[in-house]
Amino acid sequence: MDVKAKVNELLQPYLNEDQYFVVDIQVSPSRIRAKITVLLDSDTGITIEECARISRKLGNQLEELEIFDGQPFTLEVSSPGVDEPLVLRRQYLKNVGREIEVLLNDGQTRKGKLESVGEEAIIITEKPLKKPKKNDPPIEPTEIPFAEIKKSTIQISFK
């Protein structure tokens, strides 16, 4: 079993019966000091205290198992930052109502409000490029299949 799979397996008991979910696990081996980065989230967010608690428990287990044959390693457990792309459907669900930028596989970019999330696609209402005139038709929501999404990020506004 590779390190990433082992870390994922060891994390499962700490996810509070699916309250938290694994967004990503990255393992960067090194002859000096390997690094394991774990990104966790939940439908309501995850606190620094919870990340620290999980990190301590997971770190102890990894040390006991000598995951890198006794070599030193760094373990970082955190939540994804606001600039991290959305990866899982569950992340999209928690961000319904927020502004999103979607890069499609064909290179096109779509920006708008994330209206809803289905099993196979998301629906956004794009912002008009220019101020709509009185006789302009209303903007229809756009469905974007997950299969066509290369990368999605939440847009933060400080207005």
UniProtKB/TrEMBL annotation:
Location within or outside the cell: Cytoplasm
Domain Ribosome maturation factor RimP N-terminal, first and last residues per copy: 10-83
Domain (Ribosome maturation factor RimP C-terminal) ranges: 86-158
Chief location bin: cytoplasm
Keyword Cytoplasm attached: yes
GO cellular component annotations of the record: cytosol
UniProt keyword annotations, A-Z: Cytoplasm, Ribosome biogenesis
Annotated GO biological process: ribosomal small subunit assembly; translation
Stretch forming the signal peptide: none
Keyword Ribosomal protein: no
Domain of life: Bacteria
Pfam family, one: DUF150_C
Family that this chain belongs to: Belongs to the RimP family.
Biological role stated in the UniProt entry: Required for maturation of 30S ribosomal subunits.
Name listed for the protein in its UniProt record: Ribosome maturation factor RimP
